[in-house]
Amino acid sequence: MTDTTHSPRVFSGVQPTGTLHLGNYLGALRKFARLQHDHDCLFCIVDLHAITVPQEPGKLADQTRHIAAAFLAAGVEPDKALVYAQSAVPAHTELAWYFNCVARMGWLQRMTQFKDKAGKNSEAMSVGLFDYPVLQAADILAFKATHVPVGEDQKQHLELSRDIAAKFNRDFGEPAGAPDFFPLPEPLIDGPGARVMSLRDGTKKMSKSDPSDASRINLSDTPEQIAKKIRKAKTDTGGVPGEADGLEGRPDIANLVSIYAALADIPEAQVLSDHAGSQFGPFKAALAEVAVEALRPVGDLMRRYLADPDELDRIMSRSADGARALSEPVMSDVRRIIGFHGSAS
Ligand code: TYM
Fold it and tell me: What is the pTM of this model?
């Protein structure tokens, strides 16, 4: 962690849309649990981001609890980290508005996730979907967070957050006195699992929006479903290579090896040397065993947390109080720096 002006603080968010899959777990949730031991952490269920596309009002609160349960099941401890719903803390939306006036249209027009989601239909998308990454920058910076554990697909959004922070610092810097007001948040995207690909097509990322359920392993899948999806995962007719060179041009195999390494918590080179020359039948059986062993406790715990929604609500409400208290001094400085009437100290 290289920022020396700001004390380290970790922030990340997950949308309450659809069920969580292995990519979310390896790219984000598992990292959350690891970071909480030596960092000040906020983990947010980003329900304001979810409504950038239509959501069923009657389901949103339950989906939010579902993600909170997944955070806890992945090992996040409510005594160590804050776990709360974005809509419960007004600083997110307030700072997003100020950042709307800092970010440039051209910056947002370059965002590939918007282009992917909108396709040819961008005129019919909500303004919120276009503005999604500005709200994401506000999420992080309302707490002056310095580090953001995410999967690789979030890299561009994090670059935008840095650009917004830097422009705010420049626009409202000396003589108003804020050259380093916001940290430039760094993404934490490392290790295998940063980019988990579809089991049906190793060139596409594993995603909740893929119409084929066989393309992803959901955290809610049973051991039988997990084993079946791995058995049916796309492979080729070669075997497992002994070295990384042998994965070149074989995205489906590279993906399975990377998933194995991430779940067993061993280097990919070791997976390759342990299974060198193996056919895919036995390799997939070994991978299924590793996956079931790693994910079973998460699924079990998730069900246990979901059985007590009142306790989840208490945890989220306590955490939201904590998040509001952390954001208030930042927001009052922001209002003063921008120069709003009544905000002078
Ligand atoms: P969401 O809900 O789409 O994804 C949640 C997290 O899962 C990661 N992820 C993956 N990682 C590896 N392989 C995959 N196939 C894969 N698919 C998803 C995502 O990178 C993410 O870390 N925009 C964010 C939500 C957000 C946020 C924030 C994140 C809103 N505000 C502030 C960090 C900081 C998103 O993609 O959510």
Answer: 0.96
Residue 327 and residue 2: Cα distance in Å, rounded?
23
Q: Report pLDDT digits (tens) over 40-95.
A: 999 999 999 999 999 999 999 999 999 999 999 999 999 999 999 999 999 999 99
Residue nearest to atom 18 of ligand 1 (CA): 24
Q: How confident is the model over 240-294, as pLDDT tens digits? A: 999 999 999 999 999 999 999 999 999 999 999 999 999 999 999 999 999 999 9
Range(s) of the chain covered by CATH 1.10.240.10: 220-304
Strand partners, 197: 205
Longest dimension (CA), the chain: 71
Decide yes or no: CATH 3.40.1010.10 for domain 220-304: no
Cα pseudo-dihedral 94, 20, 41, 59, rounded to 10:
40
Nearest to 263 by CA among 288, 286, 290: 290
The closest-lying atom of ligand 1 relative to the alpha carbon of residue 150 is 22
Side-by-side strand order, sheet with 9-14:
81-85, 40-45, 9-14, 147-149, 186-188
Annotation marks residue 205 as catalytic: yes
**What is the Å distance from ligand 1's center to 336 Cα?**
32
Residues 6+ apart with CB under 8 A from 222: 299
